[in-house]
Amino acid sequence: MSEAKWYVVHTYSGYENKVKANIDKTIENRHLEEQILEVRVPMQDVVELKNGVQKAAQKKMFPGYVLIHMIMNDDTWYVVRNTRGVTGFVGPGSKPIPLTDAEMAPLGIRQENILVDFAEGDTVRVIAGAWAETVGVIQAMNVPKQSLTINVELFGRETPVEISFSEVKKL
Fold this sequence. Notes:
Layout: E1 5-11, H1 16-30, E2 36-40, E3 43-50, E4 53-60, E5 65-70, H2 74-81, E6 86-89, H3 101-104, E7 123-126, E8 135-142, E9 147-154, E10 157-164, E11 168-170
Antiparallel strand pairs: 1-5, 1-6, 2-5, 3-4, 7-8, 7-11, 8-9, 9-10
């Protein structure tokens, strides 16, 4: 099995988030979680001055482009290429070229492997993010994506939530 790399996909301008949502939905429907690991629209924090008031906002780093961390094969190429809003992969002709580590470094996307001491069925406490101080049981682990799914109680019912490995601590 080949290694996952980052690829750049060209989209219609203004459709970046829609393309991301469409690809995420297709990954879920076709069970391609092991082949298409992450879809990202790179954002940057900027300070805008409107009506004399400074306001923090997020802007797209590369309007018209989406980054995809995936294992390139005929199936994944077909799924991404035929997503509504995608005009094609960046590269000569129809051959996508992956980004190098040097090209990925300034984007702030790091792939560090976190060693974990928990497994499915273990109880963990969320220590960071929106779900901080929440306790849940691990339902699924996605090692390539460095995330896990836990069930948390929300409005009196169990709800699955995806959390990064770095945001939890084993109880």
